[in-house]
Amino acid sequence: MMSFINAFPGSVAQGLIWGIMAIGVYITYKLLDIADLTVDGSFCTGGAVCAVMIVSGQNPWFAILCAVLVGMLTGLVTGFFHTTCGIPAILSGILTQLGLWSINLAIMGMKANQSMNVNVHPLIVSLRYLSDVSKGNRPFYQHPIFVVGLFTLVVIAILYWFFGTERGASIRATGANENMARAQGINTNLNKVLGLMLSNGLVALSGALLAQYNSFADINMGRGAIVIGLAAVIIGEVVFSKLFTNFALKLLAVSLGAIIYYVVIQAVISFSNIDSNYMKLISAVIVAIFLTVPNLRAKGMFQSKKIHKGGA
Amino acid sequence: MLEINNICKTFNAGTVNEKKALKNLSLTLKDGEFVTVIGGNGAGKSTMLNAVAGVYGVDSGSIIIDGIDVTHLPEYKRAKYIGRVFQDPMMGTAATMQIEENMALAARRGNPRTLRSGITKAERAEYQKALAELDLGLEDRLTAKVGLLSGGQRQALTLLMATLRKPKLLLLDEHTAALDPKTAQKVLDATDRIVAQNNLTTLMITHNMRDAIAHGDRLIMMYDGHIVVDVSGEEKKNLTVEQLLALFSQASGSDEADDKLLLS
Question: Count of domains in chain A?
Fold first, then answer.
């Protein structure tokens, strides 16, 4: 019990960080209707770029900015595969992800990880700051939950504005009905590429923040990221869909979904003797169940539902 | 306004499923002309419309809209000149977006998509007025998701969207075929009104011979990838379904008109 309570703020902070990645996944999975597997690679790319730049003495804000830009570049590559080369979206993402494995290693100087020293480098978020703030050694606004929460709100605000613009609306239309979008003169290929870039930019931002939080970037840090992202999107939807109908609130629900996911995972680890190596298996099973339930519901498998909709 | 010159289109060329859908098809529409298109299944009606809209390219020939050669322009660039309504009511609108958002997307057809606001207050008032003219009760539901509308409402909305910015060419691909007779009539009435108000050059495919005669000022019949009947003016006005069938048999040299065309 004590271990769970002690780890709770850390779980929330990590959940918030992954929440930014999940918002990126939301853009492709929900708005563009593309399951983009680039994420597993671009998450690490963001962390690697950020860690290497910070260690080489660059300003951490500038390092984050560069991580975002490189992340967008990975989305551009996937978009190029998908639209120009005509490769199916899922395969395009897998190809980029695979290629990024080598590139991520190269970014970290052909090492499997790159660590930073919180005592030497002026990190923006760090696990260390959690205890520092609670001991009174640092001001509250350096608390990771506060910092990442602020990042999240800024991201949501920007996306809320963007998807209300002509270009943003045309991206939503591309995902909602591609035929209609083209008939209305919308360049759907360009929009898919833009959506993938935006999404992977956010994924890389999340990776950069997580690398700082943990004080290291690791070649495996993005493995299974897409599943965590989908879990957050789906949990957010299931839990908050009745409450949150506004677009900004839907994005917030995704972030909250990521927090719920992390707290639950933390609880499972704390209260059971499960080897943490089984966590990926548990995650996969949980996401599979959450993805199945809406389909079964649509087929009318749950007859006990009060409002029963006919048809598919 | 529209010039189709000798276009050919073959699907699955070189395979057992080879289908010559369009064979040296030529058609010229004058400015403001409203042409109805009939023909049996596989006659090439939809292929012609899709070729004009740029859904796919043609194998040979050229397509010119108001003096602009669009033969090699991608679909989304041609959309600047063309308004379209599809047979499937689900196809012309984005179900998960609001009515006003759909209209705002259509109002920007042919314009670059910038970072300006996707919809303005002035537009909303304009859309409300346009929707009121449809008389389907949509004018008070601007922020409703289009997925909540009926098929007829969605077709009427798509028609409105296609003509919100006056297109050089309006393409209607059996846009009432999926609707019940009463709703179909309402959408057809709206079509007549909107086409007349804006003096739109229009190509309307229909499976209903009576509709083909009652609407528009010129009628063409397609058979086997080209045009076999082309009547306009007084001749078209006085046309009967029986005469049309006779014309078809004569032109195609077969009796299959009876099975394939007597759908109405």
Answer: 1
The more confidently predicted of residues B234 and A213 is A213
Residue B200 belongs to some domain of the structure: yes
Predicted complex ipTM = 0.90
Which tokens hold the place of A104?
A: 């991520």
pLDDT higher than threshold 50 for residue A95: yes
Flag whether B237 is in a domain: yes
Give domain status of residue A232, yes or no: no
Which CATH number goes with the domain that contains B47? Answer: 3.40.50.300
With a CB cutoff of 8 Å and minimum separation 6, the contacts of A34 are A28, A82, A89, A175, A192, A195, A196
List CB contacts (< 8 A) between A181 and chain B: 76, 94, 105
Which residue among A166, A168, A180 sits closest to B92, beta carbon to beta carbon?
Answer: A180
Chain centroid offset of residue A163 CA:
18
Span B108-165, pLDDT tens digits? 999 999 999 999 999 999 999 999 988 888 999 999 999 999 999 999 999 999 999 9
| Domain interval for residue B15 | 2-81+167-261
| pLDDT confidence of residue A268 | 81
Query: How many domains, in total, are found in chain B?
Result: 1
Q: Tell me the HSE value of B244 on the side-chain side, using a 13 A CA sphere.
A: 29
pLDDT band at A282 (very low <50, low <70, confident <90, very high): confident
Tokens standing for residue A253: 């629900």
Decide: B214 and B240 in contact? Cβ < 8 Å.
no
Q: Is B224 at the interface with chain A, CB within 8 A?
A: no
A253-274: pLDDT as tens digits:
999 999 999 888 888 878 887 8
Distance from CA of A25 to the nearest CA of B (A): 19
Rounded to an integer, what distance in angstroms lies between the CA atom of residue A199 and that of residue B108?
25
Nearest CB neighbour to B118, from listed A168, A177, A180: A168
